[in-house]
Amino acid sequence: MAEEGKAALVLTGGGARAAYQVGALLAIREVWGRRRENPFPILCGTSAGAVNAAALAVFSANFDEAVRKLAYIWRNFRVHHVYRADTAAVTQSVLRWGSAIFFGALVRQSPRSLLDNTPLRELLEAQLDFSAISRAIDAGHLRAISVSASGYTSGDNLAFFQACDELQPWRREKRIGMRTELQVEHLLASSAIPFVFPAVRINREYFGDGSMRQLAPISPAIHLGAERILVIAGGRRSEEARQRTDSYPSPAQVAGHAMSSIFLDGLAMDLERLERINTTLSALTPEQRAAAGIALRPIETLVIAPSQRLDYLAARHRNTLPRALSVVLRSIGAMRKDGSVLLSYLLFEQAYTRSLMELGYRDAMARRVELARFLRIEGP
To answer: Which tens digit of pLDDT belongs to each residue from 271-328?
Structure first.
């Protein structure tokens, strides 16, 4: 194995779709040879990807064990591990939102979210020892980890990072890197899908899902010193031609479209921008760049993305949802094929997450030669 450039792993957002990342990580673990050492000294996560990144950071002393632990949790996921979906909780949420809509000013407090994600907090607190992150950094198993969240007041996208001493905070237009000691609040804030999960207060501001207003999802990895970046995405660009439709889009279809815009579009544009920069830099020698005062450096990238539409995959498992939640989602069109994009983000049920993991594993193994090259694995 050659020591060449600092490698970063970027895990994007996407709710239940993050199970796909774990399947890809299982393939990476296999290509890596189940070594203990961590192949990604820089970890960057957003939304559900932030949860996966934090787990890898906590157990970064043993990459093989970290991936196995992560895979065990995602293989056995149920909705009630993430949010309350029992009849009482769902009914209470429907009544609360209905009252706010129809009675307005008579309601003392506006509802904060559609779903109560207290179970997710309990799961994270039980499974992750956040103090292990600083120990991993001190021991050299980890260089840095960042978790992105979006401020509802400032509109800034903050990359909360914990790292070795040499790395410094940064500030760009609507993008800030802030040094901190990561806690469960940062993960809950990063994964607080707007309207679905409640915002989380950190210091002086409330934060929501890190995919919102994330103009440059790859930027934190570069600021933290990455020279090679592996991105595991939670969706793919649609290659299907536009089709004629005469039916008005359902609320679920509109919501799914908005979520896809939040979770997918920023990454696609950032990758295009990075590709253009790399192409420009490749035309210049290092000496020419230095003479011209160009501080930019080429960044090697590898992207693993789903080979199938995840909304169609979710639609095949829609009947695994708890009954009360299924009734509500059916009423807004989320149980139909054209509304299943929304479902694909909320379906934390093992039949779906296992299918996602299998797809992620197959897609990554199909790129195993490229993965071995990226990981600097020598030999066959």
So the answer is: 888 888 878 777 777 777 777 777 777 889 999 999 999 999 999 999 998 888 888 8
- Do residues 356 and 314 lie in contact, with contact meaning Cβ atoms separated by under 8 Å? no
Hey, what are 13's tokens?
Answer: 């957002």
CA 376, CA 349: separation in Å to the nearest integer? Answer: 36
At 269, is the pLDDT very low, low, confident or very high (cuts 50, 70, 90)?
confident
User: Could you tell me where the beta strands, DSSP code E, fall in 123-260?
Assistant: 144-151, 157-163, 170-172, 175-179, 200-202, 205-209, 228-232
Residues 6+ apart with CB under 8 A from 123: 73, 81, 82
- The pTM assigned to this predicted structure is 0.90
How many alpha carbons fall within 13 Å on the CB side of residue 263?
35
Each residue of 183-218: pLDDT tens digit?
A: 999 999 999 988 889 999 999 999 999 888 888 889
Contact call for residues 344 and 17 (beta carbons, < 8 A)? yes
Q: Which residues contact 74 (CB under 8 A, 6 or more apart)?
A: 18, 19, 22, 353, 357
Gyration radius (Cα) of the chain, Å: 21
Q: Which residues are CB-neighbours of 363 under 8 A, at least 6 positions away?
A: 23, 24, 27, 304, 305, 306, 307
CB 250 within 8 A of CB 338: yes
Give the helix/strand (H/E) hosting 66: helix 63-75
Distance of CA 43 to the CA centre of its chain: 11
Taking each helix axis from N to C end, the angle separating 19-32 and 63-75, rounded to the nearest 10 degrees, works out to 150
Sequence-ordered list of residues with C-beta below 8 angstroms from that of 210, at least 6 positions apart, any chain: 13, 46, 47, 50, 147, 148, 149, 150, 157, 189, 190, 191
3-state DSSP percent of the chain in helix, strand and coil, to 5: 50, 15, 40
